[in-house]
Design a protein that fits this description.
The complex is a heterotetramer, with 2 copies of chain A (about 300 residues), 1 copy of chain B (about 500 residues) and 1 copy of chain C (about 290 residues). In chain A, about 75% of the residues lie in helices and about 5% in strands. In chain A, the strands form 2 sheets. In chain A, strands 1-4 form a two-stranded antiparallel ribbon. In chain A, strands 2-3 form a two-stranded antiparallel ribbon. Chain A is built from 13 helices and 4 strands. With about 300 residues, chain A is mostly helical. In chain B, helix 4 crosses helix 5. In chain B, the strands form 6 sheets. Chain B has a 6-stranded mixed β-sheet, with helices on both faces. The longest helix of chain B has 16 residues. Chain B is of the alpha/beta class and about 500 residues long. In chain B, a hairpin with a 2-residue loop joins strand 16 and strand 17. Chain B folds into 3 domains: about 230 residues, Rossmann fold, CATH 3.40.50; about 180 residues, P-loop containing nucleotide triphosphate hydrolases (Rossmann fold), CATH 3.40.50; about 70 residues, no CATH class. In chain C, helix 2 packs parallel to helix 3 and helix 4 runs parallel beside helix 5. Chain C has 9 helices and 12 strands. In chain C, about 40% of the residues lie in helices and about 25% in strands. Chain C is of the alpha/beta class and about 290 residues long. Chain C is elongated. The longest helix of chain C has 17 residues. The chains are: A mainly alpha (about 300), B alpha/beta (about 500), C alpha/beta (about 290). Chains in contact: A-B, A-C, A-D, B-D, C-D. Chains C and D meet through strand 7, helix 6, helix 7 and helix 8 of C and helix 2, helix 10 and helix 12 of D. The structure holds adenosine-5'-triphosphate (2 copies) and magnesium ion (MG) (2 copies). Chains A, D: It is a multi-pass membrane protein. Chains A, D: Pfam families: BPD_transp_2. Chains A, D: One of its GO terms (cellular component) is plasma membrane. Chains A, D: This is Ribose ABC transporter permease.
Chain lengths: ~300, ~500, ~290, ~300
């Protein structure tokens, strides 16, 4: 899909003349940051043949907790681990439901999508919580040597995921389970533990996404954060070439997928396409991009 | 078929192969694993398209087989090597898939099941047409495949290793049916790695090697040495190998007592001695695989105990068995054994990867490569390299990869379920040699096999199963070798009285 | 000539709601009148905070000089607005306040709820069982429900049966919630829907179950309610009208003035709402009127 | 899942005392009607191992076209075939993308989800179209011998689906493709045609759902109608025991799944659970229901 991404960038630059500026590219990457982070976690899950629908709701819950934590006088930084912990906890529950109770992943995480969303609304009692003096605001809006922190975090997430998936035994097990779960069990792999891990890490990444959102907005709202983020995250993973069948795919593909989604949103605004037409064009470009990729590969 | 070539990517699987079959002839096709037999047949059936240049003629007329439907139209039916049933459908639905009995657009279920019953009766199969295929054992599935081909009323019938999971009884039944088909003028292409089947059945034998046509022998010219020489280009001297000492005086390694799942296995006990090759024989569906899986912990058992070196083991899942030094080679390598999307390297080292890992769980790539290289060399796996995708290997080579994986765990007890399933003569003799080596090194081998000559050839002792029970034991003694007849007697129930007594 | 912006960005909570059509038109027309050459981009945020914050970033990057915002959340959007202002951009808020905006014009939503519910209470002669079909917790809806409750509080014999069900601010949602409420409560005298689609959905549900006993009020003065009121075949008796076009026009005019450097009130300007009823619907100028 | 459904009904009746009245049960079934219809089509798709994310958007487009058609003076009934045609057309496109272009179903239908939503908004130009004199209003609000038309339509959809799936050759092909696509191809089944059909019928059912929505609400809105209906439809199918792996499941299960979802929504309102808690309880009940079902079956 990399060629498609490059093609899109060139197209938008030619059409708008404003796409390829440093500021805009940095905006695109910031926009992609949260989705990339969620998609990194989602890659683990989809590689095992599962799905995690709850990430959007987890982002909301984590963002709420993170902002509320940041309001503790003198201890504001606690918002970061608190948000992460919420994500990890939700992910662990998902993992146990799938791996131990053996629910179909779609149903288990659809249940959490709904329940965690309710929880996110409940803890803020349906109001917006905000912190004008957000101690870790720099994470959301600052940059390091000109590179936004959001981008650094997202990229770090990708690199860590890559290390786990491609350089550790655990990664091999994840691919193996996705490729053939029965065979993995017969080969003595701790399938239950690995599956639990996979949902836990997706939850953790979603928690990180929530912290990023909190740091960026200085605020959170149980209902208005993270709505249908799961779809974008899954789309990034699948655009990136990971297959629902399990066992096939790569984290770099996911990065490219997430960038394609962000570039599309940004570029269409830049060239002044109206909101309605953005929907239409976005849908068609996604289809065309994957079709082109197929064609390209089948010839290559 | 004339001048057929086929390349996958950059690799040529078939190079300018020609083959002809007459009416009422059984034409056997032989060759080592990966020689291209299945590929050639898939081209004939329309599953693959050949490269441009070749042609297929039926009754002297050139036909264009551009898909499975076209192949079927030309009267070609195939029993594929890799079983191609829909596991979620019933036996009847599978047998008539794509050729349903219809009334309008609706399925005529009654007529279909009646027709299915007829076909099953021809094969003397006991299960009803409404059985869901996923509930059948591997051997039973293979019989369903045969039934499907029989029901298709084809003029040319291709059988790609139809008997790999069948025991003698079913195989002989198949012989009768083939004779019957021949009499009706149907042309049969028969692929098998089992010599005795080739002798028994074929009118002519053609041999492929490395995707090339080597030659054809007529009925009277079929001699084992010559065939093997044509296939491998060299001579295989001793086929079965039994050099290790008889195990009578050895200590007991594995001891299984009254193990059962109370569904398919009902209280089996046996001992396996160090350095012994113990074979488990029986008819299709007799519960051998299930017994092995219970020992390995792959399925939960309802009672029974397992001890190794006299110490009781608490095996609840496969992992426990592996940790104790008991490993199991599945009969269904594609579904339960291999990770087809992964490399040979990963497949070979996955069982021991956790142990090899550097701190923090990082993969020890060097060690993994060593292991894969060793497996490639000792088992003579044919592939482009250790990073080749396992799914692209021929059946026999896949089997060797799986074996390689088990050997890397340095097991004490090796349970082999149909280890030579779909393996060519050369590789087979290598596997026998390997089994012998392992036994010599004091490893206990429990081997399940449906191929009686093989059982007779390698076993020190044979247990025979029927209906989930061990009904007989035959030990090899210098004066009294194990015979196929003795095994069959137990397996079919003729000699059951002895065992009960 | 006056100083006018060359690039303008407009972001609204969502574009897919009939209310936002005249709202956006009001803002766009006003910009076009003052600065015919200006390049105007309009986008919807799908009620997503991150999305709206991103859109403002995009506006900053693409060099807009004026942002008109209908914020997803008044407080949460503050940091983004601060950034925009730091970049020298004038920010005008309309319909929903946005902390830090230079000017703010919005409907007096508390009042909208108040007059609708007061009307309901008066029609019931100060006595009866009522339900409030709530909506998503955005400020306009919260204010309306607050206003409505204030109004009902003035009538000791009015009893609120339910106020915690979400009609999703849509016909479909209003319909489903109302069906449940109708089963739960054998008698309902009046219904307040947080917006017109909710009220219309509730009306359909009551009609289908043949429940004649109640009267319904909503907020918006939307064309479909106008049509219903005119037809007379409805339990809807009133809707507090908003004038999205005029509201957006007013906000944009003020923002343009602020852009020119003229001092503007920092307090939000609250536009009064008028109650549309069957009696005065004939003279009501609706959203779909030509301007 | 039938026991779970019955349990839920009994529970709500005990808690509210008003659940099991004729009127309320008829309301529940009406609420389930559209989702049941979508889920019936979705069952076909999921049985082949695919997914159709676009049904919610198709409902919106079809409802828009249906209402607009109903406004044609003297020819208002044209709204019905018009709505169905829109659904069928969208479904066919999905089918061709999946079966011929061979895109992953998730991506193909995610593309249509977006593009068709844009189309639905475009044709109404983002306003609500309405018809106070809807000629086929009886379909949405009338009843026949006391049974609401909506329920009759939905039930008819289920019966037709059952006939196709269990009594026709085509149905066998659908199960076969889901069970083993390669085997189906080798058996000479026209996999491409069957897959196209499956998405087409899902589109057609979604079109029907749009007509039902139009008849029920007398109005349609490109953005607000059908939002995330796909999730509910998929949930009904999976709750009903159909597996994502393909080839396993039944249409009656889907009916039960759709009823469970409707009973939950209705019952929670009846017993006066607040909106936020509805989220939480709904999520937990879905998880518990499937877990119970698993447990029950593993023992049975
Ligand atoms: N789909 C495929 N893609 C790439 N290579 C393939 C494919 N199918 C077969 N091959 C290669 O073609 C060669 C011939 O394979 P084929 O399956 O025809 O062998 P065979 O003679 O049937 O062997 P066996 O006795 O093991 O079944 C092998 O080297 C195999 O790796
Ligand atoms: N999943 C299952 N559910 C129900 N019955 C099964 C299942 N798997 C196997 N069986 C039945 O259990 C019996 C024993 O099967 P098993 O696989 O152990 O036989 P086997 O002796 O190894 O035969 P084969 O040579 O065919 O592999 C068979 O009759 C088979 O139909
Ligand atoms: Mg072969
Ligand atoms: Mg077996």
């Amino acid at each position: 899909m990399l060629p498609v991404l490059i093609l899109l960038c060139i197209g938008f630059e030619l059409l708008s003349g404003r796409f390829a500026t440093f500021t805009n590219l940095s905006i695109v990457m910031q926009q992609a940051a949260i989705n990339t982070t969620l998609a990194a976690g989602m890659t683990f899950v989809i590689l095992t043949g599962g799905i995690d629908l709850s990430v959007g709701s987890i982002v909301a819950a984590s963002a709420m907790v993170s902002v509320m934590g940041s309001l503790i006088p003198g201890w504001g930084y606690i918002g970061i681990p608190a948000g992460l912990a919420v994500g990890l906890a939700c992910g662990l529950v998902n993992g146990l439901l799938v791996a131990v109770v053996k629910l179909p992943p779609f149903i288990a995480t659809l249940g959490s999508l709904t329940a965690v969303r309710g929880f996110a609304r409940l803890i803020g009692n349906d109001t917006t919580v905000f912190n004008t003096a957000m101690p870790f605001a720099f994470l959301g809006n600052g940059s390091l040597f000109g590179v936004p922190w959001l981008v650094i975090i997202a990229f770090a997430g990708i690199v860590v995921s890559w290390l786990i998936l491609r350089r550790t035994v655990l990664g091999t097990f994840i691919y193996a389970i996705g490729g053939n779960e029965d065979a993995a069990r017969l080969a003595g792999i701790r399938v239950t533990a690995v599956l639990t891990f996979v949902y836990a890490i997706s939850g953790l990444f979603a928690g990180l996404g929530g912290v990023m959102s909190a740091a960026r907005l200085y605020a959170a709202n149980g209902l208005q954060v993270g709505q249908s983020y799961e779809l974008d995250a899954i789309a990034a993973v699948i655009l990136g070439g990971t297959s629902f069948v399990g066992g096939i795919g790569s984290i770099w593909g996911t990065l490219v997928g997430a960038l394609i989604i962000a570039v599309l949103s940004n570029g269409l605004i830049l060239i002044g396409v109206s909101d309605i037409w953005q929907y239409i064009v976005k849908g068609l470009v996604i289809i065309a991009a994957v079709a082109l990729d197929r064609y390209h590969r089948s010839r290559g | 078929m004339r001048h057929i070539s086929k390349t996958f990517g950059s690799m040529a699987a078939l190079k300018d192969v020609s083959l002809s079959v007459e009416r009422g002839e059984v034409h056997a096709l032989m060759g080592e694993n990966g020689a291209g037999k299945s590929t050639l047949m898939k081209i004939l059936s329309g599953a693959y398209r050949a490269d441009a240049g070749g042609s297929i003629l039926i009754d002297g007329r050139e036909v264009d087989i551009d898909g499975p439907q076209a192949g079927r139209h030309c009267g070609i039916a195939v029993i594929y090597q890799e079983l191609s049933l829909a596991p979620n459908l019933t036996v009847a639905q599978n047998i008539f898939l794509g050729r349903e009995h219809r009334r309008g657009g609706f399925t005529d279920r009654k007529a279909q099941e009646a027709a299915c019953r007829d076909v099953l009766a021809r094969l003397r199969l006991a299960f009803p047409p409404s059985t869901v295929v996923s509930r059948l054992s591997l051997g039973e599935r293979q019989l369903v495949e045969i039934a499907r081909a029989l029901a298709s009323d084809a003029r040319i019938l291709v059988m790609d290793e139809p008997t790999t999971s069948l025991s003698l009884l079913e195989t002989e039944r198949l012989y009768e049916i083939i004779a019957d088909l021949k009499a009706h003028g149907i042309g049969i292409i028969y692929i098998s790695h089992r010599m005795e089947e080739i002798y028994a059945l074929s009118d002519r034998v053609s041999v492929l090697r490395d995707g090339r046509y080597v030659g054809t022998l007529g009925r009277d010219e079929i001699v084992a040495e010559r065939l093997v020489a044509m296939m491998v280009g060299r001579d295989l001297s001793s086929f079965y190998k039994k050099d290790h000492r008889p195990a009578a005086d050895r200590r007991t390694l594995l001891s299984v007592r009254d193990i059962a799942d109370d569904v398919r296995v009902h209280g089996c006990s046996f001992d396996l001695k160090a350095g012994e090759v113990l074979c488990l024989a029986g008819l299709v569906g007799s519960g051998r695989t299930e017994l092995a899986r219970l020992v390995y912990g792959a399925d939960p058992r309802t009672r029974g105990s397992i001890a190794l070196d006299g110490r009781a083991l608490d095996i609840r899942r496969a992992r426990d068995a592996i940790a104790a030094g008991i490993v199991y080679l599945t009969e269904d390598r594609r579904r339960l054994g291999l990770f087809l999307e992964m490399s040979i390297n990963d497949n070979v080292s996955i069982n021991v990867a956790a142990g090899d890992a550097h701190g923090a769980g990082f993969t020890n790539a060097v060690k993994a490569r060593e292991r894969a290289d060793r497996a490639m060399k000792t088992l003579e796996i044919r592939a482009t390299g250790i990073s080749a995708k396992t799914g692209a290997l021929s059946g026999g080579n896949q089997q060797k990869v799986l074996l390689g994986r088990l050997l890397e765990t340095e097991p004490r007890v090796l349970i082999l379920d149909e280890p030579t399933r779909g393996v060519d003569v050369g590789a087979k003799s290598e596997i026998y040699r390997l089994i012998d080596d392992l036994a010599t090194r004091g490893i206990g081998v429990l081997m399940i096999s449906s191929e009686l000559p093989e059982v007779v050839g390698v076993a020190d002792r044979v247990l025979v199963m029927r209906d989930g029970r061990i009904v007989g034991e035959i030990a090899a003694a210098p004066d009294q070798p194990i015979t196929q007849e003795a095994i069959m007697a137990y397996a079919t129930g003729v000699a059951a009285v002895d065992a009960d007594a | 000539a006056d100083k006018v912006p060359t690039r303008v960005g407009i972001t609204v909570g969502t574009l897919g709601n009939p209310f936002f059509v005249p709202l956006v038109a009001g803002a766009k027309d006003t910009v076009a009148k003052a600065a015919p050459e200006a390049d105007v981009t309009v986008i919807g945020a799908d009620y997503d905070l991150n999305k709206q914050a991103t859109q403002i970033d995009n506006f900053i990057a693409s060099g807009v000089e004026l942002i008109m915002i209908n914020s997803v959340d008044a407080n949460a959007i503050a940091p983004a607005i601060e950034k925009a202002k730091a970049a020298g951009i004038t920010v005008g808020a309309f319909d929903v306040s946005a902390k830090g905006a230079d000017v703010t014009v919005m409907t007096n939503n508390v009042q909208a709820g108040e007059i609708a519910c007061k009307y309901l209470a008066d029609q019931l002669k100060g006595k009866g069982d009522v339900v409030i079909i709530n909506g998503p917790p955005i400020s306009s809806i919260i204010d309306r429900v607050t206003g409505c409750k204030n109004a009902f509080a003035g009538y000791p014999d009015i009893n609120i049966l339910s106020d915690n069900q979400d009609g999703k601010a849509s016909r479909d949602g209003g319909f489903a919630v109302m069906q449940g409420l109708l089963t739960r409560f054998p008698h309902i005298d009046a219904v307040f829907g947080a917006n017109d689609p909710t009220a219309l959905g509730a009306d359909l549900a009551a009609k289908q179950l043949n429940r004649q006993e109640m009267i319904i009020a909503g907020v918006d003065g939307a064309p479909d309610v106008v049509a219903a009121l005119k037809s007379g075949e409805t339990r809807i008796v009133a809707s507090s009208s908003q004038d999205p076009y005029a509201m957006a026009a007013r906000a944009t005019e003020m923002a343009l003035a602020a852009f020119r450097g003229e001092a503007q009130p920092s307090e939000p300007v609250l536009l009064d709402t008028k109650l549309v009823t069957a009696d005065n619907v004939g003279s009501y100028i609706g959203w779909d009127a030509e301007r």
